[in-house]
Design goal:
275 residues; two-stranded antiparallel ribbon; 13 helices
């Protein structure tokens, strides 16, 4: 087994498995240029390998903004096995940087469904971690009904507080004893990214997949934006109108900051070229 996950990433680059031509850097954050099919293929590649536990994140505009404000969050975002573009704006930004390969984004909710749809007969073992009380168990029921025979080996909805050391040790034991291959993590950002990074050396699973609000969307506890808004980069507006008091800073201030940083970066790059 490789000594470290960073070493695995380097090996993958040499194999042209996760080479630089398949990634783009946005404000110092790596994003993998994957569609749903290729992302599913790479997740299965990891499950069938002897790589140490890794984690997959969904890079959104909100995550990019957080990465500019928090160096540690940026670092753990760049240590992922895959960092998938979550949202059409990420596709637009990637294309502006010359990444013509990317055709579409990989939304967490859709990726989760497509992965189960493509692989449920292969008997991968899944564990659901996250959501409000009862939501993970509800999600288990929903997916078992949609994908007969799928192996969902456990669920856990953590309290809205930091777990005590003993509590954390107990849930790690539960996950490890379940034999899970994948832990689907449905927490808010950056909580789920921190959790996955912190637990990559505590869990004997192949991958952790941070899918945010997908638990609520799949169980009907939250409503998704209409498809036309998703495809035109307006999902943020739908969510803002749904929860204005909670999300106005994230979208109005955060989105404006991102545009400013991207323009500044482009201006500085042009100055460097002209020298």
């Amino acid at each position: 087994m490789p000594a470290s996950y960073e070493r695995v990433i380097e090996v993958n680059k040499k194999k042209d498995f996760q080479a630089m031509k398949d990634t783009v850097e946005i404000l110092g954050v790596r994003v993998n240029l994957e569609d749903y099919d290729s992302a599913i293929e790479k997740v299965e590649e990891h499950i069938n390998s002897e790589y140490p536990t890794g984690y997959v994140t969904l890079m959104s505009v909100n995550n990019l903004v957080k990465a500019q404000k928090n160096q540690f969050f940026k670092e753990i975002s760049n240590k992922t096995y895959l960092s998938l573009p979550d949202g059409i704006p990420l596709v637009w930004i990637a294309r502006s940087k010359g990444a013509r390969k990317i055709k579409t984004n990989t939304r967490g909710t859709a990726f989760m469904f497509k992965f189960f749809e493509s692989t449920f007969q292969k008997k991968h073992k899944h564990f659901f971690y996250g959501g409000k009380e009862g939501v993970a168990e509800q999600l288990k029921t929903v997916f078992e009904n949609k994908f007969p025979g799928v192996e969902i080996v456990g669920t856990y909805c953590p309290p809205f507080r930091e777990l005590a050391e003993e509590e954390d040790r107990e849930i790690c034991e539960v996950i490890n004893s379940s034999g899970a291959d994948i832990v689907w993590v449905g927490l808010s950002t950056p909580k789920q990214e921190y959790w996955m990074h912190e637990h990559k050396d505590k869990l004997n699973v192949s991958l952790m997949m941070g899918v945010g609000a997908a638990f609520d969307f799949h169980t009907g506890n939250a409503k998704e934006a209409p498809r036309w808004m998703q495809s035109n980069g307006l999902e943020w507006l739908f969510r803002l109108l749904s929860e204005p008091r909670r999300l106005w800073k994230r979208y109005l201030i955060g989105n404006s900051l991102l545009v400013y940083w991207l323009i500044t970066e482009k201006f500085n790059n042009q100055k460097e070229v002209e020298k």
